[in-house]
Write a structure and sequence with these properties.
mainly alpha, Transferase(Phosphotransferase), domain 1, three-stranded antiparallel β-sheet, two-stranded antiparallel ribbon, 10 helices, 33% helix
């Protein structure tokens, strides 16, 4: 039985402990680091795309929007990617040239949600989403984000000058090390965001309480509304069964197939 991280957060009877948050974050960062080291940009990291096994292990799933990226950064991509609450500010400003930093922003949003037990930037539309970000991090300008004037939608909308709100005030019960790491993800310039590999070496993971082992993390509850159950016999396949007995009847998956066009 598989569940996802959003269900774990929502169904927890009490907020996750600091040790549990560290455990989930370590697994997430290891997965993201592996993707980025192989030039894969996920582009839709969010709690619902992080599956949790019955033993507490976290796996990144749904690579439908994933793309290869290069250090040259001259390839054009769609800015209509990533679920809104986890969408990087450059995407909200219509950027078509971007890099793995969009994933790192999403990781920061997921981290904040784990710490706060609720989404950091829950906008109901793209404009409100940008407002949510600016309300916390402050109105960006050329000094803090030199590339902002080059973004396609920069001149299409203006916002009132707003100073940043210290993250310590938004999450007063969070440890200084956790807030420091969160700040390193949630910065406007993509190139300044901490990489997944660097984040794994942050002091946050080496101070008490230490990260929980996956066996100590919350186990998804059976029968959840959105839980993803394994296929039941006779549609459960193992390597011990003859190949001809393990072939999938196309009619079973036809309704789940989607066009690649």
């Amino acid at each position: 039985m598989l569940s996802d991280l959003s269900e774990v957060i929502q169904n927890s009877q009490r907020p996750l402990t600091a040790s549990q948050v560290k455990g989930y974050m370590m697994m997430l960062l290891k997965g993201v680091a592996l993707c980025h080291e192989n030039s894969i940009m996920h582009r839709d990291l969010k709690p619902a795309n992080l599956l949790i096994s019955s033993t507490g292990q976290l796996k990144i799933t749904d690579f439908g929007l994933a793309r290869l990226f290069s250090n040259e950064g001259d390839r054009l991509y769609s800015h209509q990617v990533a679920t809104r609450w986890y969408r990087a500010p450059e995407l909200l400003y219509g950027a078509q040239k971007y890099d793995e930093g969009v994933d790192l922003w999403a990781v920061g949003c997921i981290f904040g949600e784990l710490l706060n037990n609720s989404p950091l930037f829950p906008g109901e539309n793209d404009i409100e989403q940008l407002c949510c970000v600016l309300r916390v991090l402050g109105t960006p300008n050329h000094k803090v984000w030199p590339e902002i004037t080059e973004l396609p939608d920069y001149n299409k909308i203006t916002f009132k000058e707003n100073p940043p709100i210290p993250l310590e005030e938004i999450m007063p019960d969070t440890s200084p090390q956790a807030v420091d790491l969160l700040k390193k993800f949630l910065v406007y310039p993509s190139k300044q965001r901490i990489s997944a590999r660097q984040a794994l070496l942050h002091p946050y993971f080496f101070t008490d309480p230490l990260p929980a082992h996956h066996s100590e993390l919350p186990i998804p509850q059976c029968g959840g509304k959105h839980s993803r159950q394994r296929m039941q016999p006779p549609y459960e396949f193992t390597v011990d069964r003859p190949l001809h007995e393990s072939l999938v009847d196309p009619s079973l998956i036809q309704r789940h197939a989607r066009s690649c066009l």
